[in-house]
Structure formats: structure tokens, C-alpha cells
Design a protein that fits this description.
With about 100 residues, this protein is mostly helical. The protein contains five helices and no strands. The chain has one domain. Helices cover about 75% and strands about 0% of the residues. The chain is flat.
Length: about 100
């Protein structure tokens, strides 16, 4: 269960990093330029998630909590980054459910 909580925490961190990145890119005027690049613009969140896992090293391999560690490091980095990027809708759903419970 803690592995899912770690993925949600990493998704929160990813959202914070993306907010700062979009703010900085907007300030220096590169937001539209990067957004128009064919591969990078559409997958910027995924690329930042993979970069985040790579920078964290072994601490970023959250799938290891389920016993999934691959022999190649790049596969661990890409798989964990992709799952963290995919956890953003789950994070939003969890926060929405908590908000509904607080209002009740």
C-alpha cells in the first residue's frame, strides 16, 4: 500500500515541478516554442517525470516496493517515470474524494 502512496507523492512532486517549469518557460518566452516541438511538447510531463526519477537514483525506483527491479537501469527509470506521470489523474481523484469527505 505504501508503494501507491509513494507514487501519489511523486505525482504531487511532479505537478509542483511542472508548475514551476511552465512558469519559468512562460517568463522567458519559450513556452510556445517548446509546446510546438513535435515530440517534446506533447510529452513534456513524461520527460520531466523520467528525468526526475533519473536524478533521484535508487530512491526514485518506486516499483521496487512491488519487487520489480530490472537489470538495466534505463528500464527502471523509464518505467517508474511513466507510472509517476500516469498517477496524476489518480492523485486528482484521491484529492477529490478527500474534498467530498471533508464537506460531508
Amino acid at each position: 500500500m505504501y508503494t501507491v502512496a509513494l507514487f501519489i507523492t511523486m505525482a504531487i512532486l511532479l505537478e509542483a515541478v511542472m508548475t514551476v517549469l511552465h512558469s519559468v518557460l512562460g517568463t522567458i518566452g519559450l513556452s510556445d516554442t517548446i509546446g510546438k516541438l513535435p515530440i517534446i511538447g506533447a510529452n513534456l510531463t513524461l520527460l520531466i517525470a523520467i528525468l526526475m526519477v533519473w536524478l533521484m537514483g535508487d530512491a526514485g525506483y518506486v516499483l521496487g516496493g512491488w519487487g520489480w527491479i530490472h537489470g538495466d537501469d534505463w528500464i527502471n527509470v523509464v518505467a517508474n517515470g511513466a507510472i509517476i506521470a500516469g498517477m496524476i489523474p489518480l492523485k486528482d481523484a484521491v484529492f477529490g474524494a478527500i474534498a467530498k469527505g471533508v464537506r460531508a
